[in-house]
Structure formats: C-alpha cells, structure tokens
Amino acid sequence: MAERRSLPELLAEVPTLVVNLFRAELENLQAEVKGKVAKLGIGGALLAVAGVMAVFMLGWLLAAVNGLWQLLFPEWAAALLTAACLLVVIGILVLVGIPLLKRGAAFKQMESLDSIKDDVNMVRGLGHAADGTSPLDDLPTRTTRTDGDLR
C-alpha cells in the first residue's frame, strides 16, 4: 500500500502537477497541429500539381490531341474537344485536392484545445463544460446490486 502523505506535502506537489499537465497538453497540441499542417501540405501540393499540369501540359496536349481530332472533325471542333478533355482532368484533380485541404484546415475541431479548455475550466471551478456543473459530475456513479450492497 502506498505511504500516506500529509496535506502540506500534497499541496506542495500541486503546482508541479499543474505544470506537468499543461506541458503534456501543449505537446499534444503541437502533435495535432503538425498532423493538420501535413494534410494542408498534401492538399496544397495536389492543387499545385494540378495548376502546373494545367499550364505546362496545355500546349503539349492541345497540339497532340488537336492533331488527332482534326483527322475526324473540322479544326474548330477538334480544338473544343481537346479543351473539354483537359477540363475534365483538371476538374478531377481539383475535386480530390479541395476535400483534403478542408479536412486539414479544421483547426476548430482540435481535441488538444478542447482538453486544455476543460483543464482551465476545472481549475477555475467551472466544471467540465464551463456551464457551472461540478467536476464530480464526470465521475461514474455508484450502482446498487439486487442484494442491497453498493458496488
């Protein structure tokens, strides 16, 4: 069994525990931000690749595909078909890149920030949700057995 400590010893330990808690919360926040920034980077890279492809490949594809279409259609129709094909490719890349950016930019839904807010509210005595509830409301409640004994 653990040795019982006096109240002054326990109170002297509180500042250290609080500092360690906030350090751990900040490390958790840092790891979460790094993950979200990585997602932003991937989505941005996909959109950048789509833009580079749209600019540099445009001339090459227009010349090659337009020459092919001219075998079947008049010159003006061949140019329109070539542009339509390029628009489809660019649209697919953009549709893949935008959701990745949106998922990575969801900084409002960060568990670390919610945890830090909960810690601050607990220290201030406001309860878990800062709505005036008791911090003890989050503890599991005791249930009774059918024979009347408490669990």
Short description:
The chain is an all-alpha fold. It has helices at residues 7-69, 75-104, 111-124.
Key features?
mainly alpha
Describe this structure in words.
The chain has helices at 7-69, 75-104, 111-124. It has one domain (13-121). The chain contains three helices and no strands. The protein is rod-shaped and about 95 Å long. Helix 1 runs antiparallel to helix 2 (75-104). The longest helix has 63 residues, at 7-69.
- Provide the low-confidence segments as ranges: none
- Roughly what fraction of the amino acids lie in strands? under 5%
Total of domains: 1
Report the C-alpha radius of gyration, rounded. 30 Å
Largest sheet: none
End-to-end gap? 22 Å
Helical residue percent band: over 70%
Gross geometry: rod-shaped
Helix count equals: 3
How do the SSEs run, as a string of H and E? HHH
Query: Structural class per helix/strand content?
Result: mainly alpha
Mean pLDDT: 79
Number of strands: 0
